[in-house]
Predict the structure of Haloacid dehalogenase-like hydrolase domain-containing protein 3.
Amino acid sequence: AMLRLRLLTWDVKDTLLRLRQPVGESYAAEARAHGVQVQPEALSRSFQEAYGAQSRRFPNYGRGQGLSSQQWWVDVVKQTFRLSGVHEDGVLTLIAEKLYRDFCSAHNWEVLPGAGETLSHCCQRGFRMGVVSNFDNRLENVLSQCNLRHHFEFVLTSEDVGFTKPDRRIFEKALRLSRVLPEQAAHVGDSYTRDYRAARAVGMHSFLLRAAGQGEEPEVPPEHVLPTLTHLLALIEN
């Protein structure tokens, strides 16, 4: 069936961009620059714990709870190092503030294979494009630094909108901004729950980016699964 799509919305992390190296490696390198030795594996484990605890205590980067997302992240970084046995607060503040800036740039992010070409082709075909991401307000800058921002009419982050995927309201906001009906829109992302199922719950089409061998949720028809981003055009143009 020919999909009459006008709008494509996109997740970012692990759909269009990915970290160049594991978080623990980036944190360990920054610590070394400040004369602090910590094993990357220890930092990766501590990060998962600190990030999880902070997300439960202050969801969506502390929006509406009096925290800035910068303070939210600085606290996560400091707690990551504390859990790994580093407690000198002065140096932790310096490390955390530097990491906050570094994760705002192409220094720590790289474009996934096929992403640039696919976005360009979609723009050339006349699709309107936007971003719907559970990200903090650095995202516009990250996309600009990675030379992807120009593809999109709008960038909706959970911090700006106040809702995180799978909440339907972040998708509804994208549809309102575009003045497009849900059935004229499709979302592309790598999470079954936050992207694929959430977009379908508001009546949008959806495509799940999933490398071969990743978890097989039975509800996803094969024609909705993208082994790579470059498979998208064939599916929306047939």
Remarks:
- The CA atoms of residues 176 and 182 lie 10 Å apart.
- The first strand starts at residue 7 and ends at 10.
